[in-house]
From TrEMBL:
InterPro entries: FlK, FlK-like_dom, HotDog_dom_sf. It comes from the Bacteria. PANTHER family: BLR0278 PROTEIN, THIOESTERASE DOMAIN-CONTAINING PROTEIN. Residues 17-119 form the Fluoroacetyl-CoA-specific thioesterase-like domain. This is Putative thioesterase. The lineage of its organism: Bacteria, Pseudomonadati, Bacteroidota, Cytophagia, Cytophagales.
Length: 129
């Protein structure tokens, strides 16, 4: 694992909200705005931008936790900007805070955790039993 970043460094991911991001369950459409699930996926990706540069060729990242506070809607066609800020690197654990915005409006904030592991170890851990 490469240590390329300092606490406080940021990465930005931009995502345009589409109908695929809407909240849907087995019983149908819940509402036509960006779902908490879709926000969570975008938040994890924003934090993963650090991991992509930190991991070695024989390593991969895996999510360990996610905290999300969904504060306001993001509507179809709006561009969300998700800013991930490196909070901590503890061994092979990479912790980021994030904030998702549409313009000046905060859509969500929270924290993500990822762990960088050797690919062979990860394959063993994730192998069906």
């Amino acid at each position: 694992m490469k240590h390329l970043f300092q606490v406080g460094d940021t990465k930005v991911y931009r995502k345009t909200v589409t109908a695929a991001d809407f909240a849907r369950f087995d019983d149908g459409l819940v509402h036509a705005v960006c779902s908490t699930f879709s926000l969570a996926q975008a938040a994890e990706w924003a934090g993963r931008l650090f991991v992509l540069e930190m991991k070695e060729e024989d390593e991969e990242g895996i999510g360990t936790f996610l905290t999300i506070n969904h504060k306001s809607p993001a509507f179809e066609g709006e561009e969300m900007e998700i800013n991930a800020t490196l909070k901590e690197v503890n061994g092979n654990n990479v912790i980021c805070t994030f904030e998702a915005r549409v313009g000046d409006r905060v859509v969500a904030d929270g924290e993500t955790g990822q762990k960088i592991l050797k690919k062979d170890k990860l394959a063993r851990v994730l192998a069906p039993r």
